[in-house]
């Protein structure tokens, strides 16, 4: 993964962790089934994003800029 992907995950992971902590504190019955499903869904989404990002980078390569045209 590239640096942009790590920044993107960092900006999404920190609010998600804060939200999960807040959700645990708000739950009076301490029912962790919904929280477990939420965590499983987040892990599946993160795995899918990593797989798609790695296949995209392999497919496109690390091309910095497109080749200039030779029109004159």
From TrEMBL:
Top-rank taxon, per record: Bacteria
Keyword terms of this UniProt record: Membrane, Transmembrane, Transmembrane helix
Record field: transmembrane: 6-24, 31-50
Name of protein: Uncharacterized protein
The organism of origin for this protein: Pedobacter chitinilyticus
């Amino acid at each position: 993964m590239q640096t942009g992907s790590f920044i993107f995950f960092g900006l999404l992971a920190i609010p998600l962790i804060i939200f999960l902590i807040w959700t645990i504190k708000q739950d009076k019955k301490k029912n962790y089934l919904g929280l477990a499903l939420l965590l499983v869904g987040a892990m599946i989404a993160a795995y899918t994003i990593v797989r798609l990002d790695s296949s995209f980078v392999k497919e496109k390569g690390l091309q910095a800029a497109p080749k200039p045209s030779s029109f004159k």
